[in-house]
Amino acid sequence: AVLIQILNVVAFCHLQGVVHRDLKPENFLYTSKEENSQLKVIDFGLSDFVRPDERLNDIVGSAYYVAPEVLHRSYTTEADVWSLGVIAYILLCGSRPFWARTESGIFRAVLKADPSFDEPPWP
Predict the structure, then answer these.
(1) Active site annotation includes 22
(2) CATH fold of 2-112, please?
(3) Is the pLDDT confidence value at 113 over 90?
(4) What is the chain's mean pLDDT, rounded?
(5) What InterPro entries does the database record attribute to this sequence (predicted)?
(6) Domain assignments of the chain as residue spans, ordered by start
(7) DSSP letters along the chain, please?
(8) Active-site entry in 22, 43, 80, 118
(9) Fewer CB near the last or first residue (10 Å), C or N of the chain?
């Protein structure tokens, strides 16, 4: 249910022409502690408006969640979709799909590696 809420929130942003560019678990908050609480996305500091025919080229976002398209400096809302995939991976197995000691190492891993679904932490 949480992933569906996350997808709905981000889809709403995209329908408004907004790409968030820094989606990560800590940027989603519930409005209360109630079980049926509404999920909100926060921290629009790196967000931007994007037209359907426009490509963005700034390298922004949190390293573990940055899409390859961002690193190639040509992206639109698909950058957020990549980040959602990373969030889903973390929610499903409890660890990040890419890891390195430095930001540049993380970027290299994002560009070159495919996350494994055959080794731990996957059953």
Answers:
(1) yes
(2) Transferase(Phosphotransferase); domain 1 (1.10.510)
(3) no
(4) 95
(5) CDPK_Ser/Thr_kinases, Kinase-like_dom_sf, Prot_kinase_dom, Ser/Thr_kinase_AS
(6) 2-112
(7) -HHHHHHHHHHHHHHTTEE-S---GGGEEESSSSTTPPEEE---TT-EE--TT--B----S-GGG--HHHHTT-BSTHHHHHHHHHHHHHHHHSS-S---SSHHHHHHHHHHPPPPSSSTT--
(8) 22
(9) C
